[in-house]
User: Fold this.
Amino acid sequence: MKNIVILISGGGSNMAAIVKIAQRDAWAEKFGARVAAVISNKADAKGLIFARDHRIATEVLDHKAFASREDFDTALAALVDRFDQPGNPVLVVLAGFMRILTPGFVGRYAGRLVNIHPSLLPAFTGLHTHQRAIDAGCKFAGVTVHQVTAELDHGAILAQAVVPVLPTDTAETLAARVLTQEHLIYPRAIAELLQKI
Ligand code: GAR
Assistant:
């Protein structure tokens, strides 16, 4: 069984979308895959409640308890590796996980580590993507699913969706329109990847 481990920091709506589609589309039978665990770096991440309600194993690893980024990532890899055994490979899915990962962590799961970023990469890496798209006068914004590499918000693009930027948009209204698309393309991109790993 391929084990999907989803990393979150907050609301977890992308994680919930993936869990729902995995159930609806019977990923266990189709791809031999299951959402095995949800890990949050924040104890109060709302997404943890959804995961627990769906009987998915959850873990909290508070980054503030670690002296360095390397120490945190080493502990994170130890948690993830519980779900990475011969014959049962792990796919690590970042879903609103607001941490920069070390090259060591990224290299360990190369090709099996994906992220969703709320912009049309390579535009607007980093934070505040929606406000920056509005400020730049963009007529279109969107979302990108990509392989994770050591360079922030780079890596091979797996899927994108485009939404219009409306003259009345605020960062919040644009974010909501983009998020609706995130919930569609992320499960689809993961399903495609599961057939390759
Ligand atoms: C999503 O919009 C995701 O694209 C973004 O955080 C939100 C998480 O929402 N991720 C990043 O900004 C990563 N740099 P969710 O917790 O409801 O899935």
Q: What stands out?
A: The chain is about 40% helix and 25% strand.
